[in-house]
Amino acid sequence: MNVVWEWDKAFEVLPVLLSGFFQVTLLVTVLSTVIAAVLGLVIAIVRRSAPRPIGRVVGFVVDFIRMTPIVVQLLFAYYAFLNVSPIVIGIAVFGIHYSTYMAEVYRAGIDSVPESQWEATTALSMSRYRIWTAVVVPQALRATAPALGNYAISMFKDTPFLLTIGVVEMVQAGLIFGGNNFKYLEAITIAGVIFLLASYPTSLLIGRLEKRLAFSN
Amino acid sequence: MEKRYGDNVVLRGLNFDVAKGDRVTLIGPSGSGKTTILRLVMTLEEAEGGYIFVDGEPLTHEERGGARVEMKGSHKHRLRQRIGMVFQQFNLFPNMTVMQNIIEAPVHVLGMSKKAAIAKAEGLLEQVGLADKAHSHPLELSGGQQQRVAIARALAMDPEILLLDEVTSALDPEIVGEVLGILRHIAETTDITMLIVTHEMQFARDVSNRVLMFDGGRIIEEATPEVMFSNPQHERTQSFLQAVLGNPMVEAAE
Description:
By secondary structure, chain A is mainly alpha-helical. Chain A is 81% helix and 0% strand. Chain A has helices at 7-49, 52-66, 70-80, 86-111, 115-123, 128-158, 170-181, 185-212. In chain A, α1 runs antiparallel to α2 (52-66) and α4 packs across α6. A six-stranded mixed beta sheet of chain B has the order 8-9-10-3-11-12, with helices on both faces. Chain B has a two-stranded antiparallel ribbon with strand order 1-2. In chain B, a hairpin with a 2-residue loop joins β6 (61-64) and β7. At the A-B interface, α5 and α6 of A face β8 and α3 of B.
């Protein structure tokens, strides 16, 4: 084995990686998380309260998305919608893919709201809309926020798959730098460190959030 | 009325009327179907047979052409607004403050202005002795305080019928009195029709004008509280009341 580490290359690649990180990796993670969180909630509510045939169809689509690899979905969407910019494809595919996982988390959260809470909403003649928005979702969210956060981190770490459809996110930016300079090790190592530095504090934050989310202040 | 859970028949051939302003207490051993009646009236459960009428209108089902037909959701929703319920376990919304719990239905169901609903809620909180707790969260309150909030929440809808389902059973003995005191006051100062399930016989005696004794899903005896508690006719009622109130005959003999 012949490991050669060159510090000057490391310092040279750092700004390249950071710009890929902030301009693409972080952007995709944040936007996809928002899409996944909203769409996941919609899926969970539809599966719980829509008429059975609709629930079945949604259930089938959800299973289909979860049973196929995200790379295949990225490539499929990329070639199916050649006129759409790859970064938009990436944001949509990550958002939709992870929404199916977040939907399961929401479902567990909704199931954790006790039957007695639903009974209280009936006794008060509350509308369906208020039952969901004022009682069930706020209570379900407390139970689910940490798990949702963990999926966001998971998605963050999956973003290098974007290189399969030609999006220059952080890792791809590093690979391009490596190709031009015949030095890959520094770029890949630092990219890994940046992932670690970003996800570790986030997971600590989620852990603290979990503790703070008990009811009452 | 007929109600089953699987093969277990909870209510059979049940039929009774409650007049406007009546305070009816349902007593009987656990599993005799008392709570089930309240839950049917609140539409928390569905019966397998029979009909419930509120002010002459069918609540959940009506007879149409010899068949038992379910009423429309909007009909149930409208009629249900005239009925309020207080639960054994309070069932306050833990994600809302006390004030939000109370004004939720007046604002979003009755369409009351927020200002008017808050003013009304403040009056009700005053009445239940919790004026200073409007901005607390339910889980910061004791069980007795939570139940008082739940009573205020039910009253905020101006119900014509109030269902009280073992409202003191989950409370410490020393707090039971304060909750019953509030309910006594409401009974004295309003004409709300009340259906009460309780094991507090003194409360039943003070508040109700009719007592129904249940056993095995049927009413086996009905009387005024005076008669029911001092001179029950049915043997099952006698043994039940002896068990609940203690046995004066045995004490006298000792």
